[in-house]
Amino acid sequence: MGSVVGVRVELKTIVCFHSAGRTLRVLRHLCETDSVITSCPRVARQVNSSAVEMDSNKDEAERCIKIALNALSSDQPDRARKFLEKAQRLFPTDQAKNLLESLAQNGKPPDENGSHINGDGPSMRHRGDRQETDASANGASESAKPYTAEQLEAVRKIKSCKDYYQILGVEKTASEEDLKKAYRKLALKFHPDKNHAPGATEAFKAIGNAYAVLSNAEKRRQYDQYGEERTHPTRHRQHRDFEADISPEDLFNMFFGGGFPTNNVHVYRNGRMHFGHHNRQERREQQRDGGLALFVQLMPILILIVVSALSQMMVTQPPYSLSYRLSAGHIHKRHTAHLKVPFFVGDRFNEEYSGSSLKNVERSVEEDYISNLRNNCWKEKQQKEGLLYRARYFGDSELYQRAQRMGTPSCSRLSEIQVILDG
Questions:
Q1: Same structural domain, 403 and 330
Q2: Is 349 in the same domain as 418?
Q3: Residue 398 and residue 381: Cα distance in Å, rounded?
Q4: Residue 343 bridge partners (DSSP)
Q5: Which residue range is the domain that position 218 belongs to?
Q6: Domain annotation covers residue 105
Q7: Are residues 250 and 338 in the same domain?
Q8: 209, 150, 219, 217: which is closest to 183 by C-alpha?
Q9: pLDDT tens column, 227-275
Q10: What is the pLDDT of residue 56?
Q11: Which CATH number characterizes residue 250's domain?
Q12: Which of 1, 91, 148, 366 is the most exposed, fewest CB within 10 Å of its CB?
C-alpha cells in the first residue's frame, strides 16, 4: 500500500511518495538547509538509496548503449539489439528506444538508414561527439581508444574509393602541388596515432600508397593506362599492381619530420609496413595455427630464396660500385672522364675495360649517380616542405627557422651537373 508523508519545516514543504516501501520520486524540495532530512530519517535513507541505484543503472545503461553502437558499426544487429534491450530495462532512454525501433522496422544498422549512431539523445548529447568503443568477449567489455563517428565515416569513405584519385580527393588532372596538399591534409587526419577508428590503419596506408604512386610520373602514367583493369581482386588487395616503393610511414615522416610516434610501426627490409594494432581475435587465430600450416606458409618464401640464390650465381657481378664495397672487391677508386663522378672497381678492371667498353661503364656510372641524386633531391625537398608545413600548421617559429636553414645538398649537386651537361 502506498502512503504519503508530509513534513513542514519553516513554511517550506517536502512531499515524498512511497510505494511498497520504495521511493519513486521527490517532487518538490524547497529547503535551504538539511533540517528537513534530519526531520524525516526514513525518507532520507530511501531518497539516498534510490538516487545511488538510479545513477548506477543509468551508467550501466549508457555502457550497454555504447556496446550496442559498437556492434552496429561492426554490422552485428543481433548483438546490438540484446544490449539495447538491456539498457531499456536498466534505465529507459529515447536513444535506446529509437535504435530498437529502427532495428525492428528495417533490420539494418541505423547509420545505413540515415540515422546517426553517435546518439543525439538527451543523456548523450551533452557528453560531446567522442564515443568510446567497448569490445566484449562473452559479455565482458574491453576498453578501447576513443574515436568519433565522423572519423569512422571518413575511414569508410576512404575504403570505399575505387581508385587513387578518389582516395586523395583530386581530379585526374591534378598537379603535383595539388597532390601534396591533399596528402598533407589526409595524412594528418588518418594517421593511426591520431585516428583510432576501425580501419584507420588501412586507410592511412591507402592514402600513402596513392600519393607515392601518383607523385611518380612513370607510375602515374602506367596507373592511368591500366589502373581500372588491375584493381578488382578483393577489397584488401586493391591497387596491388601499383604498390609504392616507399612505406606510408616513411612517406609521412618525410613530409612531417616524424610528427607522430612510431612505436606501433615496424618497417621491414622490403619496405612494407606492419602496424601493431591487432585485435585479440586475430592473435588467438594465429596461435592456433599448427607447425604444418606455418611450413606451408613459409614454403613460397623458401622457394623464392633458393631461386634468388641461383639467379645471383648465374648473373655476373657489375664491374663497379658507387661506394666502397669490400665484399664485391670494389676497393679501387676512379672518376669518370666527363662528370668526374667517383666510383670503385676491382683489381682487374684496367685489364678488362678500355676504349669503348670503358666509356660504356663510365656512362652507366654517371646515369646511376644522377638517378640517385634525383631521388635524394626529391626526399630532401619533401622533408623540408614537410617541416615548413608543420611549423605553419602548429605556429612553431623555432621549427620554421630550422626548416628554412635545412639544406638540400643533392639538389645543389644535381644543378651543378645539369650546368655541365647543358654546357
A1: yes
A2: yes
A3: 19
A4: 334
A5: 149-277
A6: yes
A7: no
A8: 209
A9: 645 444 444 444 444 555 567 777 777 776 544 444 444 333 333 444 4
A10: 64
A11: 1.10.287.110
A12: 1
Nine-digit cell string for 139: 559479455
Residue 309 counted as domain residue: no
Q: Does residue 361 have a pLDDT over 90?
A: yes
- Rounded Cα distance between 246 and 237, Å, is 17
Neighbour-count burial for 149-175, b at 16+ CB within 10 Å, e otherwise: bebbebbeebbebebbbebbbbeeebe
Q: Which of 38-52, 60-74, 263-277 is predicted most confidently?
A: 60-74
- Give pLDDT, residue 241: 46
Does residue 63 or residue 272 have the better pLDDT? Answer: 63
Tell me what the pLDDT averaged over the chain comes to.
72
pLDDT in tens, 166-205: 999 999 899 989 999 999 889 888 988 888 888 888 999 9
At which residue does the C-alpha cell 569512422 appear?
A: 152
Is position 310 within any domain? no
Residue where the block lists cell 607447425: 291
Q: Write down the pLDDT at residue 108.
A: 55
Name the burial class of residue 192, with classes exposed (0-12), middle (13-18) and buried (19+) by CB atoms within 10 angstroms of its CB. buried
Give residue 57's pLDDT band: very low, low, confident or very high (50, 70, 90). confident
Type of residue found at 156:
R
166 lies in the same domain as 270 = yes
Cα 120 to Cα 132: distance, rounded to the nearest angstrom: 15
Angstrom distances, CA of residue 351 to CA of 16, 343, 354: 110, 17, 8
In terms of Cβ atoms closer than 10 Å to its own Cβ (0-12, 13-18, 19+), residue 70 is buried
Predicted confidence at residue 98, as pLDDT, reads: 86
Q: Please count the structural domains in the chain.
A: 3
Q: What does each C-alpha distance from 112 to 8, 72, 152, 407 come to in angstroms?
A: 56, 10, 13, 51
Tell me: do 112 and 182 sit in the same domain. no
Last residue of a domain, one of 79, 102, 120: 120
Q: Is residue 78 domain-shared with residue 164, that is, in the same domain?
A: no
